[in-house]
Amino acid sequence: MAQRLAAEPGLHIMNPVVLNPVLVRFGSAEIDAASDRMTAETIALIQSDGTCFVAGTSWQDRRVMRLSLVSGSMNEPGSDRPCDAICAARRKVRGQDGGRHR
To answer: Residue 62 is part of a domain; what is its CATH number?
Structure first.
């Protein structure tokens, strides 16, 4: 999932992914209040969609999304649906801010 998500423009994997978790930031990877807001808004949209559950947290003074894979039955094809939902939410939030974040 981390590799697929990292390919999405404006989405940053913030931690080395070994097994669990994946920390994702939307907007800029740098400390930036606008990206903190974008990350929080994207998390809220993903949670309201109900496709997958993600949590928000802070990491190195940045707002990030915490994605934890806990199902032993999760496989690469099974990760398509949550990845699609995360990318769609990011694009929707990006559209709401006039495309300022890349």
So the answer is: 3.90.1150.10
Does a structural domain hold residue 101? no
Helix (H) or strand (E) holding 4: helix 2-6
Predicted TM-score of the model (pTM): 0.82
Pair 42, 93: CB distance under 8 Å: yes
Residue numbers of the domain that contains 9: 2-96
End-to-end CA distance of the chain: 20
Angle in degrees, CA 90, 91, 92, rounded to 5: 90
**In this predicted model, what pLDDT tens digit does every residue of 77-87 receive, in sequence order?**
667 888 999 99
Q: Hey, what are 88's tokens?
A: 């769609």
Residue whose entry in the numeric block shows the structure tokens 């190195």: 60
